[in-house]
Amino acid sequence: MKPKMSSEEFERLHEAYMSLYEELKLIPEKALTCHGDERKRLVRRFDETQGEAEEVLKEMEEELRVAPSSYRNAMMTKVRLYRRDLGKLQRDMKNSAPGFSSHPGQESIYSSQNQHSTHMQSQRVLLLQGTESLKNASQSIERSQYMAAESEQIGTDIIQELGGQRDQLDRARDRLVNTGENLSRSRKILRAMSRRLVTNKLLLAVIILMELAILGAVVYLKFFRR
Fold it and tell me: Is the distance from CB of 9 to CB of 63 less than 8 angstroms?
């Protein structure tokens, strides 16, 4: 789980740095009026205080690594300015106390450390920006995956609904087929009834004709044959 920045801790570190910086500002001026052991003591004091200030700046950078981007960028700029001020104080100390350069390579060490710190700071900023971009990209991918899953669910629901409608259409088609079969049977029955009706009419006509013939024969035999 990503640690959360403590604004109280950052403010405490900021106050600690400002206190060390105010102390450092006074040393080059004092070194101008001192000689011998007193100047050496001031040089050692400057070295120790400057080292403490560097450590505080590193801790401030660590706190800013987990800070919101809108707050982090402004504070990172301020930390870089603090490092630049420390470099200026180192040059002032060299000019104020010739003994400060009596240690071989002392200035180059400070310069190298300052350049390395600036480089590391730039790398941290780039890393934080890359992390922020990666976080945004991850969130965008998550949103895309959510939308894809939602679209897939909608598609599944549509397919299921179409499947239900197909079943309804199949049942309606089956009912139509059954209705057609029933109509065919009804037509056959009607045709059979029509044929029987015609047959019955023909039989009735034959019976009537036969009755008329018999009646005619009876009349003939009764009245005309004597």
Answer: yes
Q: Tokens 């008329």 — which residue? A: 212
Measured CA to CA, the distance from residue 84 to residue 80 in angstroms comes to 6
**pLDDT (mean) for 54-77:** 80
- Residue 6 backbone dihedrals phi, psi, to 5 degrees: -105, 110
Q: Which residues contact 93 (CB under 8 A, 6 or more apart)?
A: 27, 28, 31, 43, 46, 100
pLDDT for residue 103: 41
Considering the entire predicted model, what is its pTM?
0.40
Using N-to-C axis directions, what is the helix angle for 7-32 and 36-64, rounded to 10°?
A: 160
**In angstroms, how far is the first alpha carbon of the chain from the final one?**
141
| pLDDT band (50, 70, 90) for residue 169 | confident
Other C-beta atoms lying within 10 Å of the C-beta of residue 51: 12
Q: What is the 3-state secondary structure (H, E, C) of 181-205?
A: HHHHHHHHHHHHHHHHHHHHHHHHH
Q: How confident is the model at residue 108 (pLDDT cuts 50, 70, 90)?
A: very low
CA angle 95, 102, 93 (to 5 degrees): 25
What amino acid occupies position 133?
Answer: S
